[in-house]
Design brief:
single chain; 5-stranded mixed barrel; 236 residues; Rossmann fold
């Protein structure tokens, strides 16, 4: 691989080359085990600020980078901005989400066909009512295990402050809630690159405010299925 370029990088400090196509998990641990599952001889791309990233050859023989974004729109915007500056051109978020639609079961993979910007970062980037992903990448994701298309709502909140918001999000057509999709879609549109989003349902809010959640091996399995679906979309 060619020597890594640090042009445009302040928060990421590359140790190997960046692929033109990138998978973006939020969780650094997911970046590690997806890289171990999908890449041949993965090399660490970044570990600065705990945002682990890896580059290697995917099963289709072409380079692939898997780079964690951290939690929330501000961190995702910084990482995606620097990746685009360094040459990333096709980015797919492989993230987790909470089900608003009670028909969505734990572990289900879904494709975000649009995102409602209920977060501060995407709005600061110019988002208004809806953010849209790249249509071709999205169509390819819908041909994978993530065949269910949903509207995602992106928020800055995970715990407190969401009381009463879920009903409004459902009324607006949202099926899932997460934290980074709107930011990635809006930034990609502004920068002229292609981005999409595939999500695993890892949380369900139960009546009375309880939470049902995937963890352990089931969560790791969902991450690998996300990476596999995203790679199929990038390889088509």
């Amino acid at each position: 691989m060619p020597a890594p370029s640090t042009e445009g990088a302040i928060h990421l400090r590359p140790h190997t080359s960046l692929a033109e196509r990138v998978l973006l998990p939020g969780d650094p641990h997911r970046a590690l085990f997806v890289a171990q599952a999908l890449l041949t001889r993965p090399l660490m791309f970044n570990h600065h600020r705990g945002l682990w990233g890896y580059t290697g050859d995917a099963p289709d023989g072409a380079p692939l980078t898997i780079q964690s974004t951290g939690m929330g729109g501000p961190s995702a915007a910084i990482v995606a901005h620097e990746l685009v500056d360094m040459g990333a051109r096709r980015l797919i978020r492989i993230g987790t989400c909470g089900a608003l639609d009670p028909a969505l079961s734990l572990g289900r993979l879904v494709t975000a066909v649009e995102a409602i910007p209920a977060d501060g970062t995407s709005v600061a980037l110019g988002a208004s009512e809806r953010c849209r992903p790249d249509p071709e990448l999205t169509e390819r994701l819908l041909a994978t295990e993530a065949a269910v298309g949903v509207t995602a709502v992106s928020t800055d909140l995970f715990y407190e402050g969401r009381d009463g918001l879920e009903a409004g999000w459902l009324a607006a057509g949202a099926g899932v809630v997460e934290m980074e999709a709107a930011t990635l879609m809006q930034l990609a549109s502004a920068r002229g690159v292609r981005a999409a989003c595939v999500l695993a349902v890892t949380d369900r809010i139960e009546p009375g405010g309880g939470r049902e959640r995937l963890d352990g091996d089931a969560l790791e399995d969902a991450g690998i299925r996300l990476g596999t679906a995203a790679l199929r979309a990038l390889s088509a």
